[in-house]
Amino acid sequence: QVQLVESGGGLVQAGGSLRLSCAASGRIFSINAMGWYRQAPGKQRELVALIYSGGIANYADSVKGRFTISRDNAKNTVYLQMNSLKPEDTGVYYCKATIVAAGVRRDYWGQGTQVTVSS
Predict the structure, then answer these.
(1) Could you report the per-residue pLDDT of 20-46, keeping only the tens digit for each?
(2) DSSP bridge partners of 27
(3) In this predicted structure, what is the pLDDT of residue 22?
(4) Can you tell me whether residue 87 is helix, strand or coil?
(5) Which residue among 30, 37, 40, 86 sits deepest, i.e. has the most Cβ atoms within 10 Å of its Cβ?
(6) Would you say 57 and 64 are in contact if contact means Cβ atoms under 8 Å apart?
(7) How far apart are alpha carbons 25 and 103 in whole angstroms?
(8) Cα separation of 45 and 63, whole Å?
(9) Do residues 51 and 69 touch, judged by C-beta distance below 8 A?
């Protein structure tokens, strides 16, 4: 079966940086889009950044210029470099990938990693 495993969350002061990683494993044929979402307490999950297999990336307006998404297709891994972090960036960050496996194309989610930015 396919799994997404995230790492890299933690506690950081405002202005600091964190780097999140998400590795996909299993009997994967191909991976299309990979992205990061976040959910703050009491709020809906929102898209942070998305990157397609060709490298084109999209960002939420709130993180443009501060966050950078990248991927290593050979390792089936997506990264999120977060700089100039703000308290409002606090939340659980989830990785999502659209994966073709066993002839089926579907979305997979990671378990989430907590990011806390203190003021």
Answers:
(1) 999 999 999 999 999 999 999 899 999
(2) none
(3) 98
(4) helix
(5) 37
(6) no
(7) 16
(8) 15
(9) yes
